[in-house]
């Protein structure tokens, strides 16, 4: 049962000390009731009150952690249905499926190729999160498949099968790791729960209907296993959208604890590779915590990873690059100096255009609190004073043998003020769009 803001307030110290970042205990209590803050933000709660508030401070979607040798994936802990309400915290993990009916050598080669896939998107390295190994045979074949995966990757694993004894043979190869195993159903859940507890694993739970699933998870929790993942047995696009939305709504809006776990989706079961990508897209946007794929295609995986990155980026915190002077195409002291802001998409757009032009140049990335050029200018974070300050701070003059600087065309209005801030400098105005930089640089070179 959700606890109200007033009930929480009664258990707080009521000193309004502001140490939690809120002006009053009541404001903090209301945020806590809305699951928008953690109880730990108030350092003054008594132990007694902490115990009483544990249920209300518990995230509505449990945090599940998978660990392997050197890799860790955290999924869950989400507190809002829609990203714009606050943010989504833990990105869903992409796992690629291998079956123990495949040749172990082929498994290792496939896993190595997928494991090595890393793309850089606006300064962030994007990659898959792990592998799912599916049992279709006996324990020896399964153990061999797990070993074959481990020969190609150290990333976390999901072990899938119907027989807990077969899975135990695979788990024996993962000493010290925390995998996800499954799949427990209303008939076999006790054996799976015992296996998960013995191996410190999380457990995938499924049932023929959401009602049966709601009956099953409390039984497993009562047995002592709380790290659960829900498989709602999605059969089609609309079915997946409906079930995932119901599970997440019940967990967040109704605080329905039996559904307070991440969801696993299997686009790998799609009829075609195209449908698999479409199902994965839906799973990322509507509420999967684990996404199991089968067909590896760099061009579609790149799109999925970028989509995931965009959805799970905090909308209130722009992705930034480090302010400073970036040298592009090995500039010599007579190369031009261009200015932009430290919003990562702005930086990469400008830097990529300069790089592709083949013209050497210095790019002064001003500290504009991670905003794009126009936004930063409108907010007063990208003005002549700031640019002049960064010219000095990052030692631009020491790198060049001229006194000329190129402003983005969108802030041509700053040129007069910048002349005053940088006496003796020639202020040039570049193009408004970064795509026009190569042609502009050819003219000024
Ligand atoms: S830190 Fe605790 S006691 Fe202080 S204002 Fe916040 S909730 Fe109240």
Can you describe what's shown?
The chain has 445 residues and is an alpha/beta fold. The chain folds into three domains: 5-57, Electron transport complex subunit B, putative Fe-S cluster (3-methyladenine DNA Glycosylase II, Chain A, domain 3); 64-311, Dihydropteroate synthase-like (TIM Barrel); 324-444, Rossmann fold. The chain is 39% helix and 18% strand. The protein has helices at residues 5-11, 25-33, 47-57, 104-115, 139-150, 164-171, 189-198, 210-222, 237-252, 273-285, 298-311, 344-357, 373-378, 384-393, 396-399, 415-421, 437-444, and strands at 64-67, 72-75, 93-99, 118-121, 124-127, 130-134, 157-160, 180-184, 202-206, 228-231, 263-265, 288-293, 324-328, 337-341, 361-366, 404-407, 426-429. It has an eight-stranded parallel sheet, with helices on one face. Strand 1 and strand 2 (72-75) form a beta hairpin. The longest helix is centred in the middle third of the chain and has 16 residues, at 237-252. The mean pLDDT is 93. The structure holds iron/sulfur cluster. Iron/sulfur cluster is lined by residues 12-13, 15-20, 22, 25, 28, 42, 44.
Write down the domain tally. 3
Briefly note the structural class of the backbone. Answer: alpha/beta
- Evaluate the radius of gyration: 27 Å
Lateral strand order in the biggest sheet: 10-9-8-7-6-3-12-11
The general outline is: globular
CATH architecture level-2 label of the largest domain: Alpha-Beta Barrel
Each distinct ligand: iron/sulfur cluster
Count every beta strand, where a strand is a DSSP E run of 2 or more residues: 17
Determine the CATH topology of the largest domain.
TIM Barrel
Number of DSSP helices? 17
* Amino-to-carboxy terminus distance: 69 Å
Average of the residue pLDDT scores: 93
């Amino acid at each position: 049962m959700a606890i109200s803001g007033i009930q929480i307030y009664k258990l707080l110290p009521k000193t309004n000390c502001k140490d939690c970042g809120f002006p009053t205990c009541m404001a903090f209590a209301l945020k806590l009731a809305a699951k928008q803050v953690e109880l730990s933000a108030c350092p003054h709660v008594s132990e007694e009150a902490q115990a009483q508030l544990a249920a209300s401070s518990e995230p509505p979607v449990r945090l599940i952690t998978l660990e392997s040798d050197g890799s860790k994936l955290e999924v869950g802990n989400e507190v809002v249905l829609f990203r714009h309400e606050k943010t989504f915290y833990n990105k869903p993990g992409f796992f690629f499926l291998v079956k123990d009916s495949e040749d172990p050598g082929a498994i290792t080669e496939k896993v190595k190729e997928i494991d090595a896939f890393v793309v850089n998107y606006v300064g962030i390295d994007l990659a898959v999160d792990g592998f799912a190994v599916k049992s279709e045979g006996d324990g020896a074949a399964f153990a061999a498949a797990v070993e074959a995966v481990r020969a190609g990757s150290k990333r976390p694993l999901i072990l899938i099968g119907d027989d807990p004894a077969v899975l135990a043979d695979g788990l024996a190869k993962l000493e010290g790791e925390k995998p996800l195993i499954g799949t427990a159903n209303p008939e076999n859940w006790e054996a799976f729960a015992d296996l998960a507890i013995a191996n410190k694993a999380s457990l995938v739970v499924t049932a023929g209907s959401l009602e049966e699933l709601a009956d099953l998870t409390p039984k497993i929790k009562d047995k002592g296993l709380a790290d659960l993942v829900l498989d709602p047995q999605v059969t089609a696009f609309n079915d997946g959208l409906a079930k995932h939305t119901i599970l997440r709504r019940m967990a967040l809006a109704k605080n329905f604890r039996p559904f307070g776990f991440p969801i696993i989706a299997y686009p790998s079961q799609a009829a075609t590779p195209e449908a698999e990508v479409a199902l994965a897209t839906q799973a990322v946007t509507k509420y999967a915590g684990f996404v199991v794929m089968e067909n590896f295609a760099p061009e579609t995986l790149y799109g999925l990873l970028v989509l995931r990155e965009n959805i799970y980026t905090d909308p209130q915190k722009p992705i930034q690059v480090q302010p400073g002077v970036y040298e592009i195409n090995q500039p010599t002291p007579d190369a031009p100096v261009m200015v932009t802001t430290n919003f990562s998409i702005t930086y990469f757009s400008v830097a990529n255009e300069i790089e592709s032009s083949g013209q050497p140049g210095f790019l002064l990335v001003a500290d504009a609190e991670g905003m794009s050029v126009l936004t930063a200018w409108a907010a007063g974070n990208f003005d002549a004073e700031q640019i002049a300050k960064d010219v000095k701070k990052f030692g631009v003059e020491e790198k060049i043998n001229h006194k000329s600087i190129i402003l983005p065309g969108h802030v041509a209005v700053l040129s007069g003020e910048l002349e005053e801030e940088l006496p003796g400098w020639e202020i040039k105005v570049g193009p408004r769009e970064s795509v026009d930089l190569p042609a502009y640089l050819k003219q000024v070179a």
